[in-house]
Structures are given as C-alpha cells and as structure tokens.
Write a structure and sequence with these properties.
By secondary structure, the chain is of the alpha/beta class. Helices cover about 30% and strands about 25% of the residues. It contains 20 helices and 33 strands. The strands form 10 sheets. A 7-stranded mixed sheet has the order 5-4-17-16-18-19-20, with helices on both faces. A 5-stranded parallel sheet has the order 7-6-8-11-12.
Amino acid sequence: MRGDAMEASSDTGKAPIWTPTQARAASSRMVEFMEMVARRGGPPLRDYQQLHAYSVEHPGAFWRTVIDYCGVRYEHLGDRDLVGGDRMPGASWFPDARLNIARTLLASDDHMPAVIGLMEDAAPTSLSFGELRARVSRYQQAMRAAGVGVGDRVACLTPSIPDAVAAMLATVALGAVWAACSPEYGVNAAVDRIGQVQPKLMLVADGYRHGGKVYELGEKVEEILRRVPSISTAVAVPVLGVGRSMAGTVERDRFLAPYQAGGIEYESLPFQHPAYILFSSGTTGAPKCIVHGAGGAMLENLKAHALQFDVRPGDRVYMASTIGWMVWNVMAMALGCGASIVLYDGSPFHPGGDALVRHIAEQRVTFARLPARYVESLAKAGRVPRLDHDFGALKTLMCNGSPFGADGYAYVYEKVKADVHVVSPSGGTDSFGSLVSNFPIGPVWAGEIQGPALGFDIDVFDGQGNPLRGQPGELVVKRPFPSMPLHYLNDPGDKRYRETYFSVYPDVWRHGDWAEFTGHGGLIIHGRSDSTLNARGVRIGTAEIYRQLADFDDVRESVVVAQDWEGDTRVVMFVQLRDGAAFDDQMEGRIRKLLRDGLSPRHVPSKIIPVAAIPVTFTGKVSEAAVRDAIHGREPSNLGALANPESLACFEPSGLPALRAA
C-alpha cells in the first residue's frame, strides 16, 4: 500500500486517492483497539468492516472496551450496559454507572500542554494540564460560592478562549449544564437561545476581534442581562483589555480572587446526567435546545478522536469553530486523549488570507479541522499552501461543515499535503458526533466518506423504509447510540423530539441528510433532505449542484431553492459573483452546460439570477430556508441565525423581475 497521493480523479471508481502505508495502518490506535477486543474474548477483527459490524451487533461489549481503552475514569460502572436496546427512543446506557467526565478530560500529567489560545494580532497563550486544572479549580470554587450546583445551567457568550474551556470543565465537574452562544449573534438571537436555557451564571467577554476590527460587547451583554433575569452572576473576561467595564458584571480576576487553586471536586453523577445544551441553527424556526448527557457525549467523542481519527497523547488538535457550535465541544473532548487543543479567536482570512492553514503549520498541529467552504475558497483563490507553510506534523485533515466533493480532495492532496489522511465526517448537533466517518486503516476515495461510524447502525432508506444502494435516500440509524439527545428543553411529552427524529420511520432515527452508499462501502452526503429539490419528478440534492460550481471561478457563492410556480415548483439558482465578474448570457450558458454535462439536464435550474449577496449562518452555511422564504414574500423564521441578514434585501420579489417571468 502506498502512503502518498495518487493521481486524483473525479471518477471515484478508478482508484483511491490515498491509502495508508502498511506501517501507518498497523501502528494505528484502531488496530491496537481491535487487538484488545480479541484479548478480551471477542472475535478476531481483520478490517474496518468487521470492526464496525462488531460495534453494532455487540454494543455493550464494544462500548465497555472503548471505556477501558480510552481510560475513562469512573467510580462505578455496573453490570448493565444497554437497557431497552430494542427501543428508540427509550434505551438507557450504563444505568448503574457513576462518574464525572471532567475527571477523564483533565487526567493527563501536569507538564503536558493542554490549551493553546490564538487571537488576531496577539501573541499565543498556553496552559499545561496542571495550569488548566488550577484554573478549573478556582472557577469551580467561585461558581459554587455563586450558587451553582448540580443541575443548574451556565451560559457562555465569549469567543473561543482558554477561560471558556476552564469554565466549561468547572461547570461539568459541578454537575451543572453548559450552554455556549457565539458572541457574533445579535441580541435577539442570543436571547432566543440563552433565554430558553435560563442560566444561573453566565461567562461573557468584553469583546472580540475579527478581520482586523474590534467589536465591543458591553451594550449587548447589558441588554441580555436585562432580558434574561435568571442570570444572577455574570463574569466578564477581559479579552480586549482590562478596564472595559460592563454594568451588571463582575470582572473575572475579581470573581476568582478569593480562591486558591486546589483539588477539583468531581460530583459523582449518572452516566446520562445532563451536561450540555446545544442549539440547532434556528434557520427553520426558533432554535431547539438539545440536551445531551455527559457519558454519551464523552464516550462518542473519545471513540472518534482515538479510533476514527487516531489522536493520541501529545497530539495537537485544531478544529476551526465558533464556541456555540457542537464542533467546539467535540474538540474539547480531545483533552481526554491526552492531546492539546488549539483555539482561535479571529477571522479565517486575517491577516494574509490564509490564517487557518498558517496556524496549522506554526502550531505543529497533527489533527486539523477546516470548513469545507474555506478549503474551496483557497482553491478558487489559486493558493498553494504547501509552498508557503510546513505541514510536516499534520497527519489528518478534516474538511466538513458542508459536502466536500472530489475536487476538494484533489486540491488538498495536490496543493496542501500529499501524505495526509483527508476525512469529511458527517453528523451534527443532534448526535454530538458523526454518524458517517473515516478510519485510518483503509483507502480514501475522492468525494466519499469512508463508511459508517463505529457504533452507528446506519442505512439509507427510501420513503417506504426500504434500504437503498447506489441511489440517494434518507440517512437513518436503526439502533440506539450513546450520544442520542436526552430531550429538548421546553418540550412537554417529548413531542418535538419525537417529531424531529422518529415521525417518518417508527423506531428508526431519521437524521435529515440525503445520502448514498457507494460501491466501496463509503457514503456521499448530498445535503440536507429538507434541501432536496423535486426536478421534473426526480429528487436531487442541492449539494450536487454546489459541488459542480466549486471550480467555477467567476462565482463566489450560490444558493439553489424551489420556487412555487404555476401550481408546481421550479428550481431557481442565485449566484454571487466575484469582484470584476459580470453576469451575461455567455456566463449563464457556461453554468448551464457545466451542470448538464457534469450532472444531468434535470439539474439545470429554470432560472439563474445574479445577486449582490447570499445569506449565511454564523457557522458559514448558506441558508436555503431564508432565501426560500424571502422569494415567496414570507418573513424568514429566524433572522437572528443569519450572519448577514441584510443580504435578504437582494431576494425581495419586487426587485427580481426574473422570478416573475416564465
């Protein structure tokens, strides 16, 4: 087997674009884990497919082995692992266990690096595990004195900074529940989230930096405190500098001053004790507050880091994410593998246009996560990062957040690094991890995710619940998994919870992705199933269209939606052009030919319309729902979820005569 890139091809059936060397595969943590399974009386496992089958057919034995392999600290585990495994929802994992996940996340030796904090135009800061434990100890004592205890809620409105990591771990150690919100949100969007949580304490920042600009948060924080009266204590971290006072807050150093670092008191809690509240995007309605249990969230992500991504003690993990996204919490779980995590507060493009890849090189990152759209932007800009940076330490590069096509894989192997494991797992806030993932002991085909994630019994169904192969359908999970949400907040009788995941296929989790199995046993995600278009009676995913346009140099961004038209629907594409490009009949013809030749005539929109801007969420995802509402004259359901709500003015029907023409 070869360990460098082969010639990239858009025909994923020709050959893998990358294969690990025999030595790399044999030394992986996954192989070590498979050997542990055999030593404990399990079957001999020769490849990933056998390991995956074992993980879903023997879930209790599999997850117990994960617990032991990953060194999970617990007071008691008990004899029962999965109760009610034939029920979904309703299954219970390790119901007799007592533990606190913060103990596992903070278990590494004092001298080992734990957190590296990067900010725009500022020197890096760092904390060893010993220093992180000391800060967690002080936060925990101060929080307890402020009245925070088991079951209480702690909110966070800061950028991605080391103090947020310490406060999160202190919250979990206390048995309280952590809920973070990105500081970029407007007041209404922040209150929509924090107000539902009703926290007792909130960690805030005085501001943040982005794109060379400084954004102060004083007025926003003061208004949130006025509108969310449950917050009795607000702790202000001086990100911009000491002296920027905010009414109703106590400065961090003053909050911590009475307490000296000592031992951390870890509350002994049930496996499924609530620990995290994650927010849905809110682009299709008020954001849902998804409550996740401590044990399931930790176990899923220790498995992912250690086995799927081969993260080990001493590694450096960097996952580009705002603090309010599930990805930030996933990154923090890497501490439990003995890895250090690299945080960044700033713009992906400042300074120099390639900040994220520069951080990967300078910080000697071994596992990095970049947004797929960011990588596509580098490709469109003609950048060749391998010529400007040394990626010698980088072993694995995750590119996701939106579907990552074959051309993206080819770009990474040709322009970033030839010998790197490119992964593009897919999951979400709902599962606190990836349903479809990658593994370090098998080949990578361009544009494909390598296979189902360990512990997830996934399938692709048609509308009647029949399995599909070789054609797209609904991505489903057929058996319980540990990181299923416990419930939604403010959802009597779990009505919304059941409607979201179990209303289409009884007793089967419908994830909401439009997916397809490939001939290699891998999967392609075509986008969200609620983004699927009906083009002349054939369902197609919008992600297919976006992938075709990824290399169309004149188009900066695009969005495709269905428009109600003459008693039916038709497909409309909006394109935001790059500076200097002009939309004319010739460009429209080139786009139509690209889609017709690369996909099919059904993928060619009825209308292609240029616009000045396209709405995106704070996590960088194009909001099809907002555009769909806007072109039909409806008020978008949650403007607060958009990073650029002003862009919706571009979609006023009165200003788009093409929308009214046949």
